[in-house]
Amino acid sequence: xxxxxxxxxxxxxxxxxxxxxxxxxxxxxxxxxxxxxxxxxxxxxxxxxxxxxxxxxxxxxxxxxxxxxxxxxxxxxxxxxxxxxxxxxxxxxxxxxxxxxxxxxxxxxxxxxxxxxxxxxxxxxxxxxxxxxxxxxxxxxxxxxxxxxxxxxxxxxxxxxxxxxxxxxxxxxxxxxxxxxxxxxxxxxxxxxxxxxxxxxxxxxxxxxxxxxxxxxxxxxxxxxxxxxxxxxxxxxxxxxxxxxxxxxxxxxxxxxxxxxxxxxxxxxxxxxxxxxxxxxxxxxxxxxxxxxxxxxxxxxxxxxxxxxxxxxxxxxxxxxxxxxxxxxxxxxxxxxx
Amino acid sequence: xxxxxxxxxxxxxxxxxxxxxxxxxxxxxxxxxxxxxxxxxxxxxxxxxxxxxxxxxxxxxxxxxxxxxxxxxxxxxxxxxxxxxxxxxxxxxxxxxxxxxxxxxxxxxxxxxxxxxxxxxxxxxxxxxxxxxxxxxxxxxxxxxxxxxxxxxxxxxxxxxxxxxxxxxxxxxxxxxxxxxxxxxxxxxxxxxxxxxxxxxxxxxxxxxxxxxxxxxxxxxxxxxxxxxxxxxxxxxxxxxxxxxxxxxxxxxxxxxxxxxxxxxxxxxxxxxxxxxxxxxxxxxxxxxxxxxxxxxxxxxxxxxxxxxxxxxxxxxxxxxxxxxxx
Amino acid sequence: xxxxxxxxxxxxxxxxxxxxxxxxxxxxxxxxxxxxxxxxxxxxxxxxxxxxxxxxxxxxxxxxxxxxxxxxxxxxxxxxxxxxxxxxxxxxxxxxxxxxxxxxxxxxxxxxxxxxxxxxxxxxxxxxxxxxxxxxxxxxxxxxxxxxxxxxxxxxxxxxxxxxxxxxxxxxxxxxxxxxxxxxxxxxxxxxxxxxxxxxxxxxxxxxxxxxxxxxxxxxxxxxxxxxxxxxxxxxxxxxxxxxxxxxxxxxxxxxxxxxxxxxxxxxxxxxxxxxxxxxxxxxxxxxxxxxxxxxxxxxxxxxxxxxxxxxxxxxxxxxxxxxxxxxxxxxxxxxxxxxxxxxxxxxxxxxxxxxxxxxxxxxxxxxxxxxxxxxxxxxxxxxxxxxxxxxxxxxxxxxxxxxxxxxxxxxxxxxxxxxx
Lengths: 338, 327, 421
What we know:
The complex is a heterotrimer. By secondary structure, chain B is of the alpha/beta class. Chain B contains 13 helices and 14 strands. Chain B has helices at residues 6-20, 44-48, 60-72, 91-97, 101-104, 134-137, 151-163, 176-179, 212-225, 244-254, 269-280, 304-310, 314-325, and strands at residues 2-5, 24-28, 53-55, 76-80, 114-119, 144-146, 168-173, 181-184, 197-200, 205-209, 231-235, 238-240, 257-264, 290-294. In chain B, helix 1 (6-20) packs parallel to helix 7, helix 3 (60-72) runs parallel beside helix 4 (91-97) and helix 10 crosses helix 11. The longest helix of chain B has 15 residues, at 6-20. In chain C, the strands form 5 sheets. Chain C has a 6-stranded mixed beta sheet with strand order 9-18-17-16-12-15. In chain C, strands 1-8-6-3 form a 4-stranded antiparallel beta sheet, with no helix packed on it. Residues 80-120 and 164-182 of chain C have low confidence and may be disordered. Chains in contact: A-B, B-C.
């Protein structure tokens, strides 16, 4: 009990101990979905998947800072843990991998992980890097105009921060102090291009000053550290004090996608080093240390997640695919033609 | 009824929609105190406030991108690109994003956005203030493209565009802003997007056109009428969707078709019109479909001689019509 | 004395308002010195003088709104005049048409042989469709489009000319029969230096095609009777001067014969018919075509409702048509809707001829020259004026007996009591 209070005291504002186990569960579930995606691809059952391994802590931490039902999320295609922690189930995730007609995100039209869940306030994104960043700013503008106490969390990798539109978005957001948070998950690689060839500055967060607001760095492998920083930024935005640029330093353990082989640009040693920084065992250890979880609970949790993923896989695979008629829906409000 | 210029029609449409629907707002360069470089939004800032009349930074991609985000979240933004010549940086957001949002989210998100921009030549605007851009956009499913030419059509179509649940690129021919005056109905009305107008009835040949050229085509038709040739003029008003039925109906009757547009000829809107006629009115054709268009050079030069050589006018149109009639 | 004009002060501006005149009449002004203030709805601007001199006349007062380009004042230039390169110069533009190569000319390349007769072989979709729908034979159809092209309008006009229309049913379709070119004909020796080439005019071509089509598709038969027109000739001799004086037209044998033919057609209406494949269309109206030899060839203007016209009416109508033919003023209307053709081969001295039926008519009637012959009258020899008349007819429509009945009817009228005028 004493340790409980101690833990509670050590926790960031707004985060209850029960939430920590949920955080851990989401990280584990995401990892299993991620592994399952690659496995299905290697089996030839799905043509494509993108990984978020190494990002789980950052994304889950950020997800918990978002006020569900009020705030909006503008993710990018590597935000599986962010989406799952925001309410996307394993079934929904697997549906999109199999490109089934009932796929919630796009009815099988988009690549995997191109999220769109209006019911969970997750906005539709495309494959165009950074194209969604101005959208998030536009959403925040709408919140401001309507005097709505909502905030847009806009997530992206460090590669996005080279796009002109990214800069235009931050410029606009800084001028008009719209309620949004720019969340950069810096895993040091944009496919194969390392950070030093992507920007001349040492940190993405350094760029915030150019747009008139604060840039904050956090440890992207620590869900609580990330949570704390994102929570503060979101509440600051909600108070009308404008945007923040957060840079969560993390690591990409796998290749960019199933179409990439990172051994062509990274050494095996480096990859092993990265895998050694895996946020999930790290968080597991942290939880165990504080008596918030024990081995048996971990085992149960992992088993539960495994069941969930297995069931989701079988269920999603069995769903019907889209047909040729489905090609023509949703072109315009009135149907295939205007 | 009141007599208005095209410019006043644009202003009135936006003004009335902003009064009617608080989700409607304007963002673009110089739309605030300057009231837009043509004074279209003069007075709007005072009436609607800074929240709804937003002077944006000089960054076209984000003018549209931010508007897209606001539209996804339920607002009805009007994003202004100061001149169509500057629209290219926003192409990613218009074609890659706005046009696809409904389709890519299977209806989960929508994008009820209007992008307005002045286009066209005849004002000594030179290479970067005179282009026509409709050919770059009308190709795109998910997008709508309007190009009215009269004050009444401008007001009605812009109102329809603002109320439309899909993204609409609204093209205003800048030469018509002050040059073209016309009767505009009082009260609330819309012109349906996708319906052409028969600007003039005739039996001997059909001229299919839009924008400033509509007015020149009608003038040319009056010239020909003195020689007993009665031309029918079809003003498309909307480029996408295009009123296929109106085109086919007219050409089936007259058997001869001339497409007139200011934009470059190759790959322009005329090519699609000609294809439609070939597909649906082939057996009624008594002459090949002709196109009188801007020449295939990158843009209209500054010297008057360049501009005059580029732009089709009543004389050139009348000559083309006569040639077609005599085939 | 040059004018200062209202300048173009904004891209879309069409008019400007004179604000304040900065110079008065009689006041001197230097080039580039401010002359007046002007306002448009976009900008307010100070206009400087394009010339040095003295303001002699104000043409637009303060507050006046004038279109761009309209004169606002006159200035008398000081000293030697410089060449005024103004926009209103009427010098030809220095630029040649830059898009000459790309000009969206509607012109098709001009055909080298110029006559355009070849264009007739390529028909637009509209022309084919209309020809099919209305059963019009396109070959040989005259075209009024560029280069002699057959237009849709030409086809529609031809629907009013039965001559261009084969019977609507396939059985009559000329295409079913071998075209003359496909028949084995001995090869023609090429022309030598002494031979002359006669080029085919469009009319000659049309005649050639029509005649061939007629002969090759219609199973014709022919019958001739001799008519004693002695009394008729005498009557005509007596009457013709007074007729001419009174009616203004000549009383020839033609209107008299046409009158008899028209009347006979009412008696034997099957002769006034058209073969339509699986039925015969018996025309109600009697429109008699008269074969006329013109400079260009044979044409057949039509006297409509010949059965309802008096001799005077027929004579006038015929004279009118022949005059029009001579002056080449015949219209499509004049050449359409004939139901039978009368061929006055007698005019050229023929006593027997076998004319070619004018499709889609069922018969053609020939009137030959009137010749004085030794004739048997009441078992004695007399000198009588004899005119042969004959009918070449489509044997599918009626038989020899009917043809004879018709010819006898005509003969009876020509030999009978003299005509009523």
